[in-house]
Amino acid sequence: MTVATAQAHPNIALVKYWGKADTAANLPATGSLSMTLDIFPTTTTVRTTDDHADRVVLNGVERDGTVRERVVRFLDHVRGLAGRDDRAEVVSWNTVPSAAGLASSASGFAALAQAASEAYGLHLDTRALSRLARRGSGSAARSIIPRFAVWHAGDDERSFAEPVEAPAIEMVIATVDAGEKAVSSREAMKRTALTSPFYPAWITSTAQTLESALEACRAGDLDRLGRITETNALRMHAVIQGSDPSIRYLTPVSWSIFDAVARLRAEGLRAWATADAGPNVCVICPPEDTAVVAERIGALAEVVVARPGPGSASREPAA
Ligand code: ADP
Ligand code: DP6
Ligand code: CO
């Protein structure tokens, strides 16, 4: 029996992943770009056991159904790589709201990839760990990486995340609703690809958008990166709304935050909004504008400030 504990943080995409090229290996249709946060860590312990079944405990509650199935499927892949078939107990604590559009699947599967690979005796380098985390949740490939990450589209070998330099930014995260979303990212992504007539345009435009965003990063051009970030988020929500039955993640409060950010820009501040698959809005800005942005957005929703954070890491198991 072996035990390993690991920690990982959520990441918020500046250029979004929304569509798969392959569901079995969880390969994305396009590359994406993100910032890993320094807040909201997930801590996961994996203990191999003699039991006949895997156990999954998330935030103190033993899980069955989809949450457990996703973890078991992931552990099956790890066991395949390790040439082992012993079961495990997975105990995980999220500090980020689960399934609310603040990337719990990213911190969750990044922490699980790190802890499970160690518990099963795999010695993976960062690239292999990112590829492994990707299988649990695509966005988790990026939470292995500190600060800013680009996750490449490509085949199983080539689809990993790696670090990228970006202009100095901080993120004001507005929690509009910490409850679980009605439609998971996975489900909504599938429906978008199958039914949204805008999907082909989303895919071709996002591939180009990523190139522009990486160019802006190389040039240290925050204004360009900011505009790209906000436009890409709104395009993603548009393609999602184009699904049948339609899916709408942004609420009137979310929209009021996008409007407030536009007003801040009109006043000369540098701030741009984005939102993942949920109602919560993340505003990026240069560090010198964070205090004002947090104060103004704080009038509309509860806010916390996040900075670029660490990649996944091993931890001492709790006693
Ligand atoms: P989010 O916006 O939070 O990433 P998703 O719909 O992408 O929402 O994924 C939420 C799902 O991710 C949960 O229902 C659960 O299956 C899985 N998940 C979240 N946190 C963890 C965790 N710590 N360990 C394992 N699985 C997790
Ligand atoms: C809107 O990574 O949660 O947050 O691979 O099916 O687990 P699965 O999906 P997931 O999707 C993330 C979607 C997003 C955009 C992003 O993080 O790039
Ligand atoms: Co997710």
Automatic annotation (TrEMBL):
EC main group: lyase
Q: Which residues form the Mvd1 C-terminal domain?
A: 172-297
- The reply on keyword Ubl conjugation is no
* UniProt xrefs under InterPro entries: GHMP_kinase_C_sf (IPR036554), Mev_decarb (IPR005935), Mev_diP_decarb (IPR029765), MVD-like_N (IPR053859), Mvd1_C (IPR041431), Ribosomal_Su5_D2-typ_SF (IPR020568), Ribsml_uS5_D2-typ_fold_subgr (IPR014721)
Nucleotide-binding as UniProt keyword: yes
Could you state a single Gene Ontology molecular function term?
A: diphosphomevalonate decarboxylase activity
Q: Give the E.C. number(s).
A: 4.1.1.33
UniProt keywords (A-Z) are: ATP-binding, Lipid biosynthesis, Lipid metabolism, Lyase, Nucleotide-binding
Q: Which residues form the Diphosphomevalonate decarboxylase-like N-terminal domain?
A: 8-159
Q: Which family does it belong to?
A: Belongs to the diphosphomevalonate decarboxylase family.
Q: What is this protein called?
A: diphosphomevalonate decarboxylase
The species is Microbacterium aquimaris
